[in-house]
Write a structure and sequence with these properties.
Blueprint: H1 11-33, H2 35-42, H3 48-80, H4 82-101, H5 106-109, H6 112-141, H7 148-152, H8 154-176, H9 179-184, H10 189-205, H11 212-228, H12 231-236, H13 241-245, H14 248-268, H15 272-278, H16 284-312, H17 315-336, H18 342-360, H19 363-369, H20 376-392, H21 395-404, H22 409-428, H23 439-446
């Protein structure tokens, strides 16, 4: 099949569909990047690594809520629409950020503060689990063929922008506040900013239009109901696990292709700042600056890789990530553990992020292109969230567990093995670039090509 002719990119839809990811992932990553400052606020004094292990455990628990969010909000998006789900997810995130900002400390109420922190993380997990489904399906459906890879790549642009905003704020605070002030009250400031930002995004998302693909599917179901009375029964199946099980092969495919990619992504983003500080011995401020600069370049690479996938297909990029991730993880992480300054650490981290770009730039559109409209959001959300909970969410915890056990290099081999697992899937899966999502696209696809 020929490569689709590129159409104009609907920038308003791309902005509206992806901007919420900024505040969602700002809040999500702020927890990780400021954990070194608030770990002592919620747990008894002791070994620093043990305190970080406790906060990392709560961070991982948030991931295990993501499958629930993927199920509930994915179902909601398939039944009520992508726009409705987008506004709901950002509302939940605003509430969870505010809850963390006002959480009491261990010194004031004992472990109750950690309970509040846990509840907030559960809310964040619920929200992010639904956000990925809603934004992935919205960006894919709202964009014409030939531009979907490019448009959907802005999901990770906005996700990375959220992380950059969190890291940037951390760098500013590190240079304007003392270590004592950051540990005392300064760590609460980023969560207040996140709660306010989410309220602004809520207003912007209420002005979005629903996707034509979803409206077409809804109208078709209504018309079928009016003509033969069976439409109502089929409508009840939209966004259900029963309907998803009819596409179990695609669901298992999403889990498998996500495993290596999400683990590598969280290794080179969320965990690496701590790794550079705890293992390489770089100052916290230097480690944060390295992450900020590398992630800025990483964000700029996403649209380029997404546009490339619109030309050559999705599989070549995924396979490139799988190969490089399998053979390059161990030497990269080993070298990073001995990085002696900003530039060596920056170059090595950026190399890892360039490898991960083969996955991050297109993973959302690939998953959305695997499923039909009536179960697309749930099909994207639930299998992805399961894989994220098992691999991405536990990345930091597993890494610290290896470190505490004196076998830190074991984590490097674990990441490489998961990349190899996903590589097998990438080689065997079908190409999804030319998938038609609507009747208009199917009609255009069937039309004869004129010279």
């Amino acid at each position: 099949m020929s490569t689709p002719t590129p159409a104009r990119t609907p920038w308003r839809a791309v902005f509206g569909g992806s901007i919420g990811n900024l505040v969602e992932w700002y809040d999500w990553f702020v927890y990780a990047s400021f954990a070194t400052y608030f770990a002592s606020a919620f747990f008894p004094k002791g070994n620093d690594t043990a305190q970080l292990l406790n906060t990392a455990g709560i961070f991982a628990v948030g991931f295990f809520m993501r499958p629930v969010g993927g199920w509930l909000l994915g179902r909601y998006a398939d039944r009520r629409g992508r726009k409705a789900a987008l506004t709901l997810t950002v509302t939940l995130m605003s509430g969870s950020a505010l809850l963390i900002a006002i959480a009491p400390t261990y010194g004031a109420v004992g472990y109750f503060g950690a309970v509040v922190l846990l509840v907030a993380r559960l809310m964040q997990g619920l929200s992010v689990g639904g956000e990925y489904a809603a934004s992935s399906t919205y960006l894919t459906e709202a964009t014409p063929p030939g531009r979907r890879g490019f448009a959907s790549s802005f999901q990770y642009v906005s996700m990375t922008a959220g992380q950059l905003l969190g890291l940037g704020l951390q760098i500013v605070m590190q240079r304007t506040m003392s270590e004592e002030a950051l540990k005392s009250y300064g760590w609460r400031i980023p969560f207040v900013v996140g709660a306010v930002g989410a309220a602004v995004i809520f207003y912007l998302r209420r002005r979005l239009l629903e996707t034509e693909v979803f409206v077409e599917a809804s109208d078709a179901a209504d018309a079928s109901d009016a003509s033969d009375g069976r439409g109502a029964a089929r409508a009840k199946e939209r966004g259900t696990v029963r309907e998803l099980l009819r596409h179990r092969r695609e669901a298992l495919l999403v889990i498998a292709l996500t495993a290596g990619g999400t683990l590598a992504y969280y290794t080179y983003t969320t965990y690496l700042t701590k790794y550079l500080s705890n293992t390489a011995g770089l100052p916290k401020s230097t480690a944060s600056l390295v992450s900020f600069c590398a992630l800025l370049v990483f964000a700029l690479l996403q649209p380029l890789a997404g546009a490339l996938s619109d030309r050559i297909g999705r599989r070549p990029l995924l396979i490139a990530f799988g190969v490089a991730g399998t053979v390059g993880t161990v030497p990269l992480m080993t070298a990073l553990g001995h990085a002696s300054g900003f530039w060596p650490a920056f170059g090595l981290m950026l190399t890892g992020l360039v490898i991960v770009t083969g996955y991050t730039s297109i993973n959302a559109v690939v998953k959305a292109e695997l499923f039909p409209t009536h179960v697309r959001a749930l099909g994207v959300a639930l299998p992805y969230a399961i894989a994220n909970a098992l691999f991405g969410g536990t990345a930091e915890y597993v890494a610290l567990w290896f470190k505490k056990g004196g076998a830190e290099s074991g984590f490097y081999w674990y990441v490489a093995a998961c990349a190899a697992l996903s590589l097998v899937v990438y080689v065997r899966m079908r190409e999804t670039r030319d998938t038609a999502l609507s009747s208009r696209e199917r009609t255009a696809e069937a039309a004869p090509v004129r010279a």
